[in-house]
Amino acid sequence: xxxxxxxxxxxxxxxxxxxxxxxxxxxxxxxxxxxxxxxxxxxxxxxxxxxxxxxxxxxxxxxxxxxxxxxxxxxxxxxxxxxxxxxxxxxxxxxxxxxxxxxxxxxxxxxxxxxxxxxxxxxxxxxxxxxxxxxxxxxxxxxxxxxxxxxxxxxxxxxxxxxxxxxxxxxxxxxxxxxxxxxxxxxxxxxxxxxxxxxxxxxxxxxxxxxxxxxxxxxxxxxxxxxxxxxxxxxxxxxxxxxxxxxxxxxxxxxxxxxxxxxxxxxxxxxxxxxxxxxxxxxxxxxxxxxxxxxxxxxxxxxxxxxxxxxxxxxxxxxxxxxxxxxxxxxxxxxxxxxxxxxxxxxxxxx
Length: 351
Known about the structure:
This protein has 351 residues and is of the alpha/beta class. The protein has two domains: 47-150 and 270-316, Periplasmic binding protein-like II (D-Maltodextrin-Binding Protein, domain 2, 3-Layer(aba) Sandwich); 151-269 and 325-349, Periplasmic binding protein-like II (D-Maltodextrin-Binding Protein, domain 2), CATH 3.40.190. It has helices spanning 13-45, 63-74, 86-96, 113-118, 190-203, 207-214, 225-233, 246-254, 284-294, 297-300, 338-349, and strands spanning 47-52, 77-82, 104-109, 122-123, 146-158, 181-184, 218-222, 239-243, 259-262, 268-278, 310-311, 330-331. Strands 1, 2, 3, 4, 5, 6, 7, 8, 9, 10, 11 and 12 form a twelve-stranded mixed β-sheet that branches. The longest helix has 33 residues, at 13-45.
């Protein structure tokens, strides 16, 4: 039998050409990819990611101006991420936990403090000038939650439609106000939760009966403050839940004193808005720089004319705040429990 000789495989010229091209360009591609990754890392190192509520980062809110000032002073860019109202933002944070892509959460208030602190997601950090914050609005002495502004919940009314405003929570139940009140949902809105706290503080065990009396006065319960107050200013109803500081906005930008805050004999619940450093923050040094900046005049002076709240350090207030009265009877309200919110939901479902 004739044996055939073994032959070596022959590589085609086309294959050799492709291989040569790969060897020439592969290092360049790898270098280019490395450069892209390095650029992305450098960009990330110069930013801080902050979760907040919609109105803070709206076109009329303080977010843009604060971001510009912080960038100018530090070279660090703020990446704002909006998550509806405060309640929605907290729910998102608790759902995502340590995988949440944020360095700071900004815009919760004292009514969310217990749930937030119990999550274990925050790291203590005491910023420069923290000692300048009045003791009565420091809600967490470990500074896992740091105040940046405050105001008092109030019913704001249209004085052209309501010449004789309500003077108490009970007055709101008067049939004269039937379908004239806009509130916010305590499950998703910090003002909504604040109002529920207010009613529970004043009526204690009788708060549910109060809400039953209040039902006929409610036109709608909005998901968030933005929507609810927008309906109010659009003329849908002459009464809306907001803040004692809200009328200053209308004086400053609309040159009108038409909208006023009703000061109640019951007193008013304070809202303290806070920010917190997330323990898993990727840009922790930048986040701490921001929290230091947050208590500086450069940040605080933006708050009154954009977020329409009081600053937490002593700085001059705009002239328009002359119609933004502080309550002479601030109420020391205990946080509402989840069980209370569940009972409120059941009440509303049975309307």
